Fold this protein.
Amino acid sequence: MDRSKIRRILEDIRLGRVEPEEAARLFEDLQTEDLGYATVDHHRAVRLGFPEVIFGQGKSAEQIIGILRSLQARQDTVLITRADGEKAQAILREIPELDYNPVAGTLLWARGQVESRGRGTVLVVAAGTSDLPIAEEAVVTARALGNEVETLYDVGVAGIHRLLTNNQKLRSASVIIAVAGMEGALPSVIGGLVDRPVIAVPTSVGYGASFGGIAALLGMLNSCAPGVVVVNIDNGFGAAYAATMMNRTP
């Protein structure tokens, strides 16, 4: 259940195509469901515009399957993040129709084509190949939330000419997600080149003094480029969600 479905039900009531009793039954989907180990939020798409996403880390395959089945009954798209290889394979054996991205660790189920709702393109830029798991999480999430997505990979500041030769691609995006580890300089460089929102994602990639992504996080927070905002370390999902809110049409 989401806002568009609620509007359709109300219109059907107004036109007499649906009886109030039947509408009341349909609105029963606007509730939470207690599975014992999880309370599934079926009202989230109405409140926020997007349905609940399953965070797979720390959950068993059986728990994820149970939550997934509950969500499938009431929404058209279900995304699972942070599902490692063994857990993902166990879920796929039970529900083989899921689209698995082994780099991102995501599983996606969609009832048909995901409707495009964005004003323009979300561009996901990754500094290095080691940053791809987080960048791909952002890509999968942004597409699942209805965005047109393009990518630009392995264009970090160690070879800055690789980025500069793609200046037109940067400037044509509506929102840019910049993913980088090490010292985290990439978002600052991009922020100095374009008049678009830049969402910086620090990754835990780097040698010891990177402190598991803290160095990149602090570098991004201290960016001198205006228009750069920062999400948590390795949070490709959060970056894509924020980009979607910036990019979506009313």
Remarks:
- The chain has eleven helices and eleven strands.
